[in-house]
Amino acid sequence: MEDHDTGAGASAVGVSGASSAESAAPSAGRFSRHAGAHARHADQRHADQRHADNHGESQKGKTRKRRKRRRGRKVFARDENGAIPSSTPAISAARAPEPAPAIPQPKPFPPRPPQQELPVFAALDLGTNNCRLLVAVPGRHGQFRVIDAFSRIVRLGEGLTASGRLSQAAMDRAVEALKICGDKLRNRKIRKARLIATEACRSAANGVEFLERVEREAGLKLEIIDRQTEARLAVSGCGSLVERDTQGVVLFDIGGGSSEIALIDLTGRRSSRLANHIVSWTSLPVGVVSLAERFGGRTVTRETFIAMVDDVAARLKVFDGRDRLAHVLASPNFHLLGTSGTVTTLAGVHLDLDRYDRRRVDGLWMNRDSVDRMIERLIGWDFQQRCANPCIGADRADLVLAGCAILEAIRGVWPSERLRVADRGLREGILSELMADDGIWRNDGRGR
Length: 448
Known about the structure:
The protein is of the alpha/beta class. It is 44% helix and 15% strand. A hairpin with a 4-residue loop joins strand 6 and strand 7 (259-265).
């Protein structure tokens, strides 16, 4: 079968064949006619063979070209002379391929908006024994994350029971601690802060004068809160430690100069704020510093300890609202909740910690027998043994038994099989209320 593409290739093969014939002509006269004819036939066979070889090579080359063309390469139509017209559109050797479907390009991601900076809140509590600061940002609903903190024992109320005034040395210690707090607050962009002072400044004759000095030297303006506000803030700070099935709680905060006690009834519909369920509260004008100064804190005999318990119990007897939780006292869903250095120290001794660890103490449950054993253990230790314990130390060694005496008086009025320990209190309550009042958790808990 004839290949239509050989027309162009034949001329090239013919030129090659003619040249061979011309080179063979001189030898034709030396042979006979048959020999010449034979030679001519032989030459013709050779020419035909060369033509066939050249044709085969051309066919192979064209086959390879077609193979490449069928793989998607473009070819061009030729005119009758083999030229490629410049205006001829490209076509396929077999058939024009269908256009490839357009690949949809992914839409570019919109630029990410800058991450909103979380608002910062601060709470400072200047108590009779401690100066404490917390700086935090809101987290999930009702929670926050602490980003800075400070705590120092300043014993602002030292000698207050006897003199009725804050001593110069105590005020100096407190001012130095408050200067550190002031530097921390000025180094951050604080949305809202509340700085409070409690019983020592509340009862001292020179309490207001001292706070004026604080404003001048530390650049902080503190407010003296009343006892009811103190009790409410303590409750607000411990809301997350009261479980949903709880029916009643007696929350107590044993401070340096006073002790706040709140009775919380949860038998009805529960509000998002635990403080809304306070049915009765009291603030006893006695704390670990004032009680230890009156009865002695370094050497505490069993008789001395009992005398301290009786003193606090007598104050509780005149508390009119003490029976407001009588209907839940026998329930397994009633318990005590303590937030103070006394109960956290007791928990650390109970756990036999090598060093105090808030993560293990905060939220710890202790049963009645465990509390009894720990108090008996502490009564049996002398002052040096209490100093040597890593969860007590020299700063609390003369105060811890006075705190245990207040705890015993509370347990005598509201006996419970369970005590929950809270390493939190007024500062956490302040932060919770500041964030809630600012609408931080109104939508998604991550700020507005």
